[in-house]
Amino acid sequence: MRSRADVPPDRRGSADRDPSFDGLRGIAALWVFATHAAYWSLLPRVLNFRGAGRGGVILFFFLSAFLLSGPFFAESSKALTWRAWIQYGSRRVFRIVPLYYLVVLVLWVRRLNPFNGLDQGATTSLLIQHLTFQKGMSVFWSIISEVRFYIVLPIFLIFTAIVREKLTLGGLPVLLIGACWLACVASGLVQNEYFLHLGIDTHTPVFLLGALTALVVDELPPDSVTRRQRWTFECLAWIAALAFVCNAIPALYNSITTGSSISNYSGGSGVYESDGIYEAFWAQRITWIGLPLGLLFFSYPRGTGHMKRVLSVGPLTWVGRVSFGLYLIHVTVIEQLRPPLIPLSPTTRLIVDLGLSLGVACVFFVLLEDPLIKLGRRRTSRLLAARDDPRSKATGDSG
Predict the structure, then answer these.
(1) Per-residue confidence at 155, pLDDT binned at 50, 70, 90?
(2) What own/partner pairs with CB < 8 Å and gap ≥ 24 does 135-144 have?
């Protein structure tokens, strides 16, 4: 029987998909939704997610780095082949660009967030900046960071592949270099903007932590874990999850460290504006918030399976599948259903906003996202097959 590594990536079926990762995407999307719902006073004060939206985005970033890096580490020579990068680029484009462009164009035509309140010339300029990934307002800022990461990641993966191929130490040198850089960033020793952002942005430590965690998982596979060790890893996973939550919700972190009420934390001066305390919180803690995620992603697959089953619950994984559309559209839905346009109670508004956001996201997924992702895979497979066809080479036709 062939192992999974022997099966071409384009032919791996849905059975190889880990539903717990979709569950984590679902948590990240609902986390961001809860943040904006809190700003519009749709959540009880005790569930104060004000200022916590970046925690959900950090989880998205970590997941992206972890999942994109993993296949290249599982097949160490993959990063040194042109085929892999054709597949990589094609899938990234079909995964992100169509839905992102559609949402941005609709908002521009309808003069909705982030184009409302601006004259035609300003909105057109802003549209071009969004479509060319130069600028991202509202929730679109994370798309810009993600695209920059897509461009920088191949450099890291090619470097890692060369190191693992040439040195007997495997990925250890890369891990040591990455750990040293992260330590310097976390301690404040790195101040230069270029070395701090590495061409991405202030969330570079989270992207790197995701990639390094995937490398550690590949170097230390979970196959030989004993039963007692599984309980240890399960406990570590829950501790890491709790640490992430406590650190990534400013109101909760502020309550733990100062003893103040969770309900009193403002989290910024408005829906899109942030005060100095808010910015200082994230500037100091992005790396430290990413570290529990590294422990979580390393530990829970080695655990007893309790956390994995929780993350694989059907409704949560379903939200994870449509999370990109939910992330892009939920702010607009919340704004358009605001009082006095729609006179509903906060609880009713919360249910309607979430239901409508999920409904639109599902339509996006069924009619656009999923078909185009599959189309991208088919087109890439045909292109690669045509280039490998001996008859094409004999006739000089590379397709």
Answers:
(1) very high
(2) 138/113, 138/114, 138/272, 138/331, 139/32, 139/327, 139/328, 139/330, 139/331, 140/100, 140/104, 140/114, 140/328, 142/57, 142/60, 142/61, 142/327, 143/96, 143/100, 144/201
Q: Give the C-alpha separation, 373 to 90, whole Å.
A: 9
The set of residues, in sequence order, having a beta carbon less than 8 Å from that of 23 and lying 6+ positions away, is 310, 311, 312, 313, 316, 317, 320
CA atoms within 13 A on the CB side of 219: 17
Instruction: Evaluate whether 62 touches 297 at the Cβ level (below 8 Å).
Output: yes
If one counts every other C-beta atom within 10 angstroms of the C-beta of residue 105, the result is 13
Mean pLDDT computed over 324-347: 87
Apex CA 43: angle with CA 278 and CA 272, to 5°? 35
- The H or E element spanning position 276 is helix 276-299
Question: Between these two residues, 386 and 208, which has the higher pLDDT value?
Answer: 208
Indicate the Cα dihedral angle 296, 300, 306, 311, nearest 10°. Answer: 60
Using one digit for the tens of pLDDT, what is the confidence trace for 192-226?
888 888 889 889 999 999 999 999 999 888 777 88
CA–CA distance, 138 with 135 (Å, rounded to integer): 10
Taking the CB of residue 187, how many other CB atoms lie within 10 A of it?
9
Q: How far apart are CA 27 and CA 60, in angstroms?
A: 9
Place of tokens 């590294």: 294
Paired tokens of 160: 């890692």
Using a pLDDT cut of 90, give the percent of the chain over it: 59
Read off the pTM: 0.89
Count the Cβ atoms, other than its own, within 10 Å of residue 297: 23
Which one has a higher pLDDT value, 77 or 357? 357
Of the listed ranges 135-149, 259-273, 330-344, the one predicted with least confidence: 259-273
Burial of 271 (0-12, 13-18, 19+ CB in 10 A): middle
Angle between helices 276-299 and 250-258 (to 10 degrees): 100
Q: How far apart are CA 111 and CA 107, in angstroms?
A: 6
Task: Answer for the pair 137, 126: CB distance below 8 angstroms, yes or no.
Answer: yes
